[in-house]
Write a structure and sequence with these properties.
The protein is an alpha/beta fold and about 375 residues long. It has helices spanning about 20-30, 45-50, 60-65, 80, 100-110, 130-150, 180-190, 200-210, 220-230, 305-325, 330-335, 340, 355-360, 365-370, and strands at about 1-5, 30-35, 55-60, 70, 90-95, 115, 170-175, 195-200, 215-220, 235, 265, 285-290, 295, 345, 350. Keywords: Magnesium, Metal-binding, NAD, Nucleotide-binding, Oxidoreductase.
């Protein structure tokens, strides 16, 4: 199969969908790999590393798209790319269709096969291609929060771990999933006082057994949230409802209850956020202040640490991509049934129920296409 990797053109997106090591695995198995010139530079992978792995460097984005039977990307295609996508081409990337109608319409029109990282789902409800980026974002949320608690950056002027004779910062984490757990590890490791709020007792029991003594768990409800925000220094929003908008656990009126210089980091911002006053920001202009409370709401946090993020992402995507290349998209589902859920649009039909429902468009079960091969 011919695999093509274009350079990401979204604002400050430095990740790349394939490492030189991944390219080598493909070429070793008899596939052709086309990498757009300088696509890996932002992640620290020069063109020469890809050439040494057997890949062919293509000079332009147009030529890259024209070569590939499978296009591997990190972020969803943006408008300049729509016209480059061809019928029957397989696109393997993050799409987040439910929050982007123009993209959905463009992909329907292209008659391409759209396989979304974020909806590949195993029987136990885990999302194997979303997990690595959630781990990165969870850990980064504390790194960023600790930074913005510094006075010159608009925070309270408090050191996350404190020092002997002073109290450490209080960190409140909304949600005990992957993001919340990773955030708690980082914050507790730096010596902060951490409270994780969640609605699942089994999850809280698990966290209580694996977390260090400076991490406590509490049931998530409005009463507890209103009580805890009064003294919190750093609040991290880590609520995810797969494919749908996150609920607003912190509302506008609650900001007045917080200490001036409190820092809010909403990791769920790309799905609408769980803090009402959050709106997506960029790495160029990451923060803003409302009622004396600093908001950090960058929608692609892992893009700031592209070397780590690219390695973490490609570790997860490569086994699937290899199977897709070896067997084709229909047969690949035999080995990895979780790929069924990954298909969102096939040849002009929406095959993922939540996307069809969001835009009130007709839905065709993915089995229609998988049983006709």
């Amino acid at each position: 199969m011919r695999i093509a990797v274009p350079k990401e053109i979204k604002n400050n997106e430095n990740r790349v969908a394939l490492t030189p090591a991944g390219a080598q695995e493909f070429t070793k198995n008899g596939h052709q790999v086309f990498i757009q010139q300088s696509a890996g530079l932002g992640s620290g992978f020069p063109d020469l590393a890809y050439q040494n792995a057997g890949a062919i460097i293509t000079p332009t984005i147009e030529e890259t798209y024209s070569k590939g039977e499978m296009i591997m990307k990190v972020k969803e295609p943006i408008e300049p790319e729509y016209s480059l996508i061809k019928e029957n081409q397989l696109l393997f990337t993050y799409f987040h269709f439910a929050s982007n109608k123009p993209l959905t319409e463009a992909m329907i029109k292209s008659k391409a096969i759209c396989l979304a990282y974020e909806t590949v789902e195993k029987d136990d409800k885990t999302l194997p291609l979303l997990v690595p980026m959630s781990e990165v974002a969870g850990r980064m949320s504390v790194q960023k929060g600790a930074n913005y608690l510094e006075k010159p950056l608009g925070g309270r002027g408090i050191l996350l771990g404190g020092v002997p004779g002073t109290l450490p910062a209080k960190v409140l984490i909304l949600g005990g999933g992957i993001v919340g757990t990773q955030a708690a590890w980082m914050a507790s490791g730096l010596g902060a006082d951490v409270i994780i709020l969640d609605v699942s007792l089994p999850r809280m029991r698990h966290l209580s057994t694996v977390m260090p003594k400076n991490v406590k768990t509490m049931m998530s409800n409005e009463f507890n949230i209103r009580h805890l925000i009064k003294n919190a220094d750093l609040i991290i929003g880590a609520v995810l409802i797969p494919g749908a908008k996150a609920p607003h656990l912190i509302t506008r009126d609650m900001l007045k209850e917080m200490l001036p210089g409190t820092v809010l980091v909403d990791v769920a911002v790309d799905q609408g956020g769980c803090i009402e006053t959050c709106k997506p920001t960029t790495h160029e202009d990451p923060t803003y202040t409302i009622d004396g409370v600093l908001h950090y709401c960058v929608a692609n946090m892992p893009g700031a640490v592209p070397y780590t993020s690219t390695l973490a992402l490609t570790n997860a995507t490569l086994p699937y991509a290899m199977e897709l290349a070896q067997k084709g998209w229909q047969e690949a589902c035999d080995k990895y049934p979780e790929l069924h859920h990954g298909f969102n649009i096939i040849k002009g039909d929406i095959v993922y129920q939540a996307v069809a429902d969001t835009f009130h468009l007709p839905y065709v079960p993915v089995s229609y296409y998988l049983n006709h091969h």
